[in-house]
Amino acid sequence: MGTEKTAERPAAPSGEAAPPLLDDQLCFLLYTASRTVTARYRPLLDELNLTYPQYLVMLVLWERGPVSVRELGTALHLESSTLSPLLKRLEAAGLVRRERRTDDERSVSVTLTEAGLDLRERILAVPPVIGDAMGLTDEEFEAAGKLLRKLIANVSGSH
Q1: Which residues belong to any copy of the HTH marR-type domain (predicted)?
Q2: Rounded CA gap, 86 and 97, in Å?
Q3: Which fold has domain 22-124?
């Protein structure tokens, strides 16, 4: 499978394939890495009154400016049913504004408020802390990103 073996495989009855080991499953390693990194963000984002998914929404808005809910969902790979409560909480916190577009009543535009724009300066301290916690060299970080983007494209069928 392309992963380093970390444990001895249990013996299988004669003639049967041995069951896969959990630590040999790339999907489990990705799941564990995601949960571990996300947990590392938690105390940093708690200070800013943001959850990790809210942080991701804010990153898209800081990068792209006003976007439709649909564009936001596409960028974050989130369904509208997941995104709506996130946006509702960000709006209640005064960080974003949702408005129906005048040119298309079916579309809702998400815009940063002044408070949302101001929060960007405080967020700048977060990525270096996370980067340090990962303990990767610049080259390893770039290689990991490249491999993960390739994996996502291949598995999603968009390569």
Answers
A1: 23-153
A2: 12
A3: Arc Repressor Mutant, subunit A (1.10.10)
Torsion, CA 105, CA 103, CA 83, CA 159, rounded to 10: 130
Instruction: Sketch the domain layout of the chain as residue ranges.
Output: 22-124
- Dump pLDDT digits (tens) for 38-54: 999 999 999 999 999 99
Neighbours of 19 (CB within 10 A): 9
Residue 96 backbone dihedrals phi, psi, to 5 degrees: -135, 165
Angle at 147 between CA 26 and CA 127, to 5 degrees: 100
Contact 60, 96 (CB under 8 A): no
Both tokens assigned to 86: 């996130």
Tracing tokens 């041995």 back to the chain, one arrives at: 18
